[in-house]
Recover the amino acids of this structure.
Protein backbone atom coordinates (compact mmCIF):
# COMPACT_ATOMS: atom_id res chain seq x y z
CA UNK A 1 0.00 0.00 0.00
CA UNK A 2 1.31 3.42 -1.02
CA UNK A 3 0.90 6.43 1.27
CA UNK A 4 1.76 10.13 0.98
CA UNK A 5 4.15 11.84 3.38
CA UNK A 6 3.49 15.56 3.79
CA UNK A 7 6.53 17.69 4.63
CA UNK A 8 7.20 21.43 4.93
CA UNK A 9 10.54 23.23 4.73
CA UNK A 10 11.03 26.20 7.03
CA UNK A 11 13.22 28.46 4.85
CA UNK A 12 13.03 32.22 5.19
CA UNK A 13 13.96 34.48 2.25
CA UNK A 14 17.49 34.94 3.58
CA UNK A 15 18.02 31.17 3.38
CA UNK A 16 17.48 31.03 -0.39
CA UNK A 17 20.61 29.99 -2.35
CA UNK A 18 20.28 33.21 -4.36
CA UNK A 19 20.82 35.16 -1.12
CA UNK A 20 23.23 33.05 0.93
CA UNK A 21 24.88 29.63 1.19
CA UNK A 22 25.82 28.84 -2.43
CA UNK A 23 29.34 29.37 -3.86
CA UNK A 24 28.13 30.76 -7.21
CA UNK A 25 24.50 31.78 -6.87
CA UNK A 26 24.54 33.75 -3.61
CA UNK A 27 24.73 37.54 -3.33
CA UNK A 28 25.87 37.45 0.31
CA UNK A 29 27.90 35.35 2.72
CA UNK A 30 26.62 33.97 6.00
CA UNK A 31 29.01 36.36 7.73
CA UNK A 32 26.94 39.17 6.22
CA UNK A 33 23.80 37.64 7.72
CA UNK A 34 25.38 37.58 11.18
CA UNK A 35 26.96 41.05 10.92
CA UNK A 36 23.67 42.66 9.88
CA UNK A 37 21.59 40.77 12.45
CA UNK A 38 19.37 39.18 9.81
CA UNK A 39 19.53 35.87 11.66
CA UNK A 40 17.60 37.47 14.52
CA UNK A 41 14.73 38.65 12.32
CA UNK A 42 11.99 37.18 10.13
CA UNK A 43 10.82 38.50 6.78
CA UNK A 44 7.28 39.82 6.45
CA UNK A 45 6.51 36.95 4.08
CA UNK A 46 7.79 34.34 6.53
CA UNK A 47 5.58 35.69 9.31
CA UNK A 48 2.61 35.63 6.95
CA UNK A 49 3.56 32.07 6.03
CA UNK A 50 3.60 31.10 9.70
CA UNK A 51 0.08 32.43 10.10
CA UNK A 52 -1.16 30.84 6.88
CA UNK A 53 0.36 27.46 7.74
CA UNK A 54 -1.20 27.42 11.18
CA UNK A 55 -4.58 28.30 9.65
CA UNK A 56 -4.20 25.43 7.17
CA UNK A 57 -3.40 22.97 9.95
CA UNK A 58 -6.73 23.89 11.53
CA UNK A 59 -8.54 22.58 8.43
CA UNK A 60 -7.26 18.99 8.47
CA UNK A 61 -5.89 16.17 10.62
CA UNK A 62 -2.96 15.09 8.45
CA UNK A 63 0.37 14.26 10.11
CA UNK A 64 3.04 16.67 8.83
CA UNK A 65 6.81 16.73 9.21
CA UNK A 66 8.54 20.10 9.56
CA UNK A 67 12.13 20.45 8.37
CA UNK A 68 13.50 23.33 10.39
CA UNK A 69 16.70 25.37 9.97
CA UNK A 70 18.62 25.68 13.22
CA UNK A 71 19.46 29.37 13.08
CA UNK A 72 15.78 30.32 13.05
CA UNK A 73 15.88 29.90 16.82
CA UNK A 74 18.13 32.96 16.99
CA UNK A 75 14.86 34.86 16.54
CA UNK A 76 12.70 35.07 19.66
CA UNK A 77 9.52 35.60 17.62
CA UNK A 78 10.04 32.32 15.80
CA UNK A 79 11.01 30.46 18.96
CA UNK A 80 7.79 31.49 20.74
CA UNK A 81 5.57 30.75 17.75
CA UNK A 82 7.19 27.35 17.17
CA UNK A 83 6.70 26.38 20.79
CA UNK A 84 3.01 27.26 20.65
CA UNK A 85 2.58 25.46 17.32
CA UNK A 86 3.98 22.21 18.69
CA UNK A 87 1.92 22.52 21.84
CA UNK A 88 -1.22 22.98 19.77
CA UNK A 89 -0.60 20.24 17.18
CA UNK A 90 1.88 17.97 18.96
CA UNK A 91 -0.08 14.79 18.25
CA UNK A 92 0.54 15.02 14.50
CA UNK A 93 3.68 17.11 13.99
CA UNK A 94 7.18 15.70 13.75
CA UNK A 95 10.32 17.79 13.34
CA UNK A 96 13.45 17.00 11.34
CA UNK A 97 16.68 18.85 10.60
CA UNK A 98 17.17 21.14 7.60
CA UNK A 99 20.70 22.21 8.53
CA UNK A 100 22.00 25.17 10.50
CA UNK A 101 22.02 27.98 7.95
CA UNK A 102 20.77 26.32 4.72
CA UNK A 103 24.21 25.95 3.18
CA UNK A 104 24.20 24.15 -0.19
CA UNK A 105 26.79 21.61 0.94
CA UNK A 106 27.29 19.55 -2.23
CA UNK A 107 27.85 22.70 -4.31
CA UNK A 108 31.02 23.34 -2.29
CA UNK A 109 34.20 21.23 -2.06
CA UNK A 110 33.79 18.15 0.17
CA UNK A 111 33.90 19.24 3.81
CA UNK A 112 32.93 16.43 6.22
CA UNK A 113 34.39 18.28 9.21
CA UNK A 114 32.46 21.47 8.47
CA UNK A 115 29.26 19.58 7.76
CA UNK A 116 29.64 17.61 10.98
CA UNK A 117 30.04 20.78 13.05
CA UNK A 118 27.05 22.38 11.30
CA UNK A 119 24.91 19.28 11.78
CA UNK A 120 25.82 18.93 15.46
CA UNK A 121 24.87 22.53 16.17
CA UNK A 122 21.62 22.30 14.23
CA UNK A 123 20.63 18.96 15.77
CA UNK A 124 21.21 20.19 19.30
CA UNK A 125 19.12 23.34 19.02
CA UNK A 126 16.30 21.81 16.96
CA UNK A 127 16.04 18.85 19.34
CA UNK A 128 16.04 21.25 22.30
CA UNK A 129 13.08 23.23 20.96
CA UNK A 130 11.17 20.34 19.33
CA UNK A 131 11.43 18.03 22.32
CA UNK A 132 9.47 14.81 21.85
CA UNK A 133 8.47 15.89 18.33
CA UNK A 134 12.07 15.70 17.12
CA UNK A 135 13.12 12.83 14.86
CA UNK A 136 16.60 12.00 13.46
CA UNK A 137 15.44 12.71 9.93
CA UNK A 138 17.39 14.97 7.58
CA UNK A 139 16.66 17.07 4.52
CA UNK A 140 19.68 18.66 2.88
CA UNK A 141 19.29 22.42 2.31
CA UNK A 142 18.15 23.00 -1.26
CA UNK A 143 18.38 19.26 -1.91
CA UNK A 144 22.16 19.57 -2.20
CA UNK A 145 23.37 16.17 -1.00
CA UNK A 146 26.42 14.16 -2.03
CA UNK A 147 27.64 10.65 -1.09
CA UNK A 148 30.34 11.99 1.26
CA UNK A 149 27.61 13.41 3.54
CA UNK A 150 26.07 10.00 4.33
CA UNK A 151 28.71 8.81 6.85
CA UNK A 152 28.45 12.14 8.69
CA UNK A 153 24.68 11.79 8.96
CA UNK A 154 25.10 8.27 10.34
CA UNK A 155 27.70 9.42 12.88
CA UNK A 156 25.18 11.92 14.23
CA UNK A 157 22.46 9.30 14.60
CA UNK A 158 20.32 10.10 11.56
CA UNK A 159 18.30 7.15 10.30
CA UNK A 160 16.22 8.69 7.49
CA UNK A 161 17.09 11.12 4.71
CA UNK A 162 14.68 12.87 2.39
CA UNK A 163 16.95 15.06 0.27
CA UNK A 164 16.96 13.39 -3.14
CA UNK A 165 15.02 14.99 -5.99
CA UNK A 166 15.55 12.15 -8.52
CA UNK A 167 15.26 14.25 -11.65
CA UNK A 168 17.88 14.67 -14.37
CA UNK A 169 17.18 18.40 -14.26
CA UNK A 170 18.84 18.80 -10.84
CA UNK A 171 21.39 15.96 -10.99
CA UNK A 172 24.17 18.53 -10.40
CA UNK A 173 22.97 18.81 -6.80
CA UNK A 174 24.43 15.36 -6.11
CA UNK A 175 27.90 16.90 -6.47
CA UNK A 176 30.49 16.91 -9.22
CA UNK A 177 30.90 13.49 -10.81
CA UNK A 178 28.15 11.95 -8.70
CA UNK A 179 24.63 10.68 -9.36
CA UNK A 180 21.42 10.22 -7.40
CA UNK A 181 22.04 6.47 -7.54
CA UNK A 182 25.41 7.06 -5.89
CA UNK A 183 23.80 9.09 -3.11
CA UNK A 184 21.17 6.39 -2.57
CA UNK A 185 23.86 3.73 -2.31
CA UNK A 186 25.93 5.79 0.15
CA UNK A 187 22.87 6.29 2.36
CA UNK A 188 22.06 2.57 2.23
CA UNK A 189 25.61 1.57 3.12
CA UNK A 190 25.43 3.85 6.15
CA UNK A 191 22.14 2.42 7.38
CA UNK A 192 20.03 5.41 6.39
CA UNK A 193 16.61 4.98 4.81
CA UNK A 194 16.06 7.25 1.81
CA UNK A 195 12.72 8.81 0.98
CA UNK A 196 13.18 10.63 -2.37
CA UNK A 197 10.74 13.28 -3.50
CA UNK A 198 7.99 12.55 -5.98
CA UNK A 199 8.65 13.58 -9.59
CA UNK A 200 6.39 13.58 -12.66
CA UNK A 201 7.61 12.82 -16.16
CA UNK A 202 11.13 12.80 -14.61
CA UNK A 203 10.73 16.48 -13.65
CA UNK A 204 10.65 18.20 -10.22
CA UNK A 205 7.18 18.92 -8.83
CA UNK A 206 7.88 19.93 -5.22
CA UNK A 207 8.99 23.10 -3.48
CA UNK A 208 9.84 25.87 -5.98
CA UNK A 209 8.42 23.79 -8.85
CA UNK A 210 4.92 24.43 -7.47
CA UNK A 211 5.16 28.08 -8.51
CA UNK A 212 7.85 28.33 -11.22
CA UNK A 213 6.50 28.18 -14.79
CA UNK A 214 6.54 25.84 -16.70
CA UNK A 215 7.33 23.32 -13.93
CA UNK A 216 4.19 24.51 -12.15
CA UNK A 217 2.10 22.96 -14.92
CA UNK A 218 3.89 19.63 -14.51
CA UNK A 219 3.53 19.89 -10.73
CA UNK A 220 -0.21 20.51 -10.99
CA UNK A 221 -0.58 17.26 -12.91
CA UNK A 222 1.86 15.38 -10.69
CA UNK A 223 -0.07 16.23 -7.54
CA UNK A 224 -3.26 14.63 -8.85
CA UNK A 225 -4.50 11.19 -7.78
CA UNK A 226 -2.11 11.00 -4.87
CA UNK A 227 -2.14 8.08 -2.42
CA UNK A 228 -3.89 8.82 0.85
CA UNK A 229 -1.74 10.56 3.47
CA UNK A 230 -0.11 8.52 6.19
CA UNK A 231 -2.38 8.02 9.19
CA UNK A 232 -1.38 9.60 12.50
CA UNK A 233 -1.64 6.41 14.56
CA UNK A 234 0.61 4.38 12.21
CA UNK A 235 2.58 7.30 10.73
CA UNK A 236 6.08 6.60 12.01
CA UNK A 237 5.81 2.83 11.75
CA UNK A 238 4.88 3.00 8.08
CA UNK A 239 7.23 5.85 7.15
CA UNK A 240 10.31 4.14 8.56
CA UNK A 241 9.53 0.64 7.31
CA UNK A 242 11.73 -0.58 4.47
CA UNK A 243 8.69 -2.36 3.04
CA UNK A 244 6.43 0.70 2.83
CA UNK A 245 5.86 2.54 -0.43
CA UNK A 246 5.95 6.26 0.33
CA UNK A 247 5.18 9.22 -1.92
CA UNK A 248 7.09 12.19 -0.50
CA UNK A 249 5.77 15.70 -1.09
CA UNK A 250 7.08 19.01 0.18
CA UNK A 251 6.35 22.69 0.03
CA UNK A 252 7.70 25.74 1.86
CA UNK A 253 6.28 27.62 4.80
CA UNK A 254 6.74 30.74 2.67
CA UNK A 255 4.19 29.35 0.19
CA UNK A 256 1.46 29.99 2.76
CA UNK A 257 2.09 33.73 2.37
CA UNK A 258 0.98 33.56 -1.26
CA UNK A 259 -2.43 34.77 -2.42
CA UNK A 260 -2.89 36.92 0.69
CA UNK A 261 -2.26 33.87 2.90
CA UNK A 262 -4.98 31.91 1.11
CA UNK A 263 -2.56 29.50 -0.61
CA UNK A 264 -2.95 25.87 0.40
CA UNK A 265 -1.11 22.78 -0.87
CA UNK A 266 -3.02 21.13 -3.75
CA UNK A 267 -4.01 18.01 -1.84
CA UNK A 268 -7.64 17.57 -2.87
CA UNK A 269 -7.03 14.72 -5.29
CA UNK A 270 -6.26 11.76 -3.06
CA UNK A 271 -7.25 8.45 -4.56
Amino acid sequence: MNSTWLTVDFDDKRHLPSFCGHPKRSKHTYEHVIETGLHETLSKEFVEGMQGFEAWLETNNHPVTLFVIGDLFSCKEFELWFSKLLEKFASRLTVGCHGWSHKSWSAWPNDPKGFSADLAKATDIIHKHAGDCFRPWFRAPGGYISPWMAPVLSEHGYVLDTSINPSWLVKRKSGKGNSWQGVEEALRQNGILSRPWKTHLTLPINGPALSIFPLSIVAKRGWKNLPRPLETDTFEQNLTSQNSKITTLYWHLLDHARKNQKWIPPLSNFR
In short: The CA atoms of residues 94 and 133 lie 5 Å apart.
